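Re: [help] complex structure
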Amino acid sequence: MTLWLIIIGMGVVTYAIRLSPIVLLERVDIPPVVRRALRFVPPAVLSAIILPGLLRPGGTLDISLGNARLLAGALAAFVAWRTKNVLLTIGAGMAALWILQILIR
Amino acid sequence: MPSPRSEFLSGVKALLPILLGVIPFGMIYGVLALGAGLPAGVALAMSSIVFAGSAQFVGAQLIATGTPGVVIVLTTFIVNLRHMLYGASVAPHLKHLHPLWRWLLAYLLTDEAYAVTITHYNQPGASPSSSASKHWYFLGAGLALWSTWQASTAVGIFLGTQVPASWALDFTLTLTFIALVVPALNDRPSAAAAISAGVVAVLVADLPLKLGLMVAALTGILVGLWLERNASGALRPSRPLSLDP
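Output below.
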């Protein structure tokens, strides 16, 4: 039930963002600072999700060679940087995670 | 003047090459939404209720980590805020339409549909009279993307149910984000925004209500803005990071 409420909330917010400038026919002036801030949203939000996932996989900080997700994520970042290919990055990261999980165990 | 039918078909046609990139994304979303622990029905419903790729990926991840709903909805707002720019940009072209048309087209306003439609509206030689049926082009592009997104996420969800939990597929979400962020870090303000947000997120991860994410994201955005303001030379043109359906 809560899940459905969350999804509907996400949908309402998304639709409101898309609809409001179209319906409010007066020119909607978006402040220049918001315009400029928008391009930093993806790197900031995504990296704020990525780094805790890699550095705190079990909920506590783990910067060691025993942290398979950290190593696999670092390899994936390298592949992403060199190839800019999403599927290749996911493939390399998952392969690394599976191999490391066997080695570290 | 082109007929509604030919405008609609041109819109569909303009979107076809983009679909090649959308189909794998939809399938990945389906697989990893299940990996993140979402029931299949909820994962599928999100594709039509939210219909915004990046927000769906982020939402699935936040639901998986037990983030409170209010924070998820707020994050969705920030992630999708760029659509307001698209809306403001197409609004003058939709003024003459019935409200039902405008409500429908607003629902179909994604990165991809916007990109092909605004190009069509802004074609050289376009006059108000020649744009009279261009909303059919928008509709064609929007529906082509919408139906492809629904179908590809459904296939991904089906595949996801066949995968055992020991495969740790939840990690594909983190990897997808890495694949999107890393190539986009091609200037100092963007890189600094990402690094500062990531470091702060790790440091404040124990804040209640998962508020660390918001604190970290806002820190990164402010750092990026601050560095950009202090950078000498012209502003770089912004390249929106597109992962929307």
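Chain B touches chain A through 94 residues (CB under 8 Å).
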